[in-house]
Amino acid sequence: MINWRVRFKKLLWVVAFLSQLFILSEMVLVGAHAVGITDFQLTEEIKGGVLAVVNAIFGFLAFLGVVQDPTTSGMEDSARAKQYSVPK
């Protein structure tokens, strides 16, 4: 069984989850329109507006350091990585 409380404590997981949720929502709306369940259609204008908002949110989160290197604990680089002059 999945322990959702633990997963939602990891901001990296939450960011990935939200981005997948946006993709799933788009697929459901497009599919519902294609089979005639709804007459709502995602226009390029709507997609562009939503994409701009999502990009702004994720850009801000990346600026804050929420989107981080998953190979290190915390928000900092490891001591070993700080000594690199060229990435390995």
Question: What can you tell me about this protein's structure?
Answer:
By secondary structure, the chain is mainly alpha-helical. The chain has one domain. Helix content is 60%, strand content 0%. The protein contains 4 helices and no strands. It is elongated and about 60 Å long. The N and C termini lie far apart (37 Å). The relative contact order is 0.09. The model has no long low-confidence stretch (mean pLDDT 77).
Brief account:
With 88 residues, this protein is an all-alpha fold. Helix content is 60%, strand content 0%.
Order of helices and strands: HHHH
Amount of beta strand: under 5%
* DSSP E strands, number: 0
Shape: elongated
Radius of gyration: 18 Å
Indicate the low-confidence ranges by residue numbers.
none
**How many separate domains make up the residues?**
1
- Estimate the helix proportion, in percent: 55-70%
Calculate the mean pLDDT score and round it: 77
Number of helices: 4
> How far apart, in Å, are the first and last alpha carbons?
37 Å
Layout of secondary structure:
Elements (H helix, E strand, L loop, with lengths): L3 H4 L3 H24 L9 H21 L14 H4 L6
